[in-house]
Amino acid sequence: MILSYAACWGAVTLRVWLPILTIYFDGNFTKAYDIVAWVSWVPNILVALGIISYAKTAS
After folding, report:
1. DSSP code, position 57
2. Where do the domains of the chain lie?
3. Overall pTM > 0.85
4. pLDDT per residue as tens, the chain (59 positions)
5. In the 8-state DSSP scheme, what is residue 28?
6. Contact yes or no for 7/45 (Cβ under 8 A)
């Protein structure tokens, strides 16, 4: 469930960061999308895996 929640939040994060990065790159949508695709998914999954790892060692 934690990974599923992280994946769902990846979609939300993408939609939040995409307009911000598009403005930052002066309207270059393609460059902004290339970056935001990684920025929105990878950190969310890494945080979820960290939470899972911590939960396993804490119990």
Report:
1. H
2. 2-58
3. no
4. 999 999 999 999 999 999 999 999 999 999 999 999 898 889 999 999 999 999 999 87
5. -
6. yes
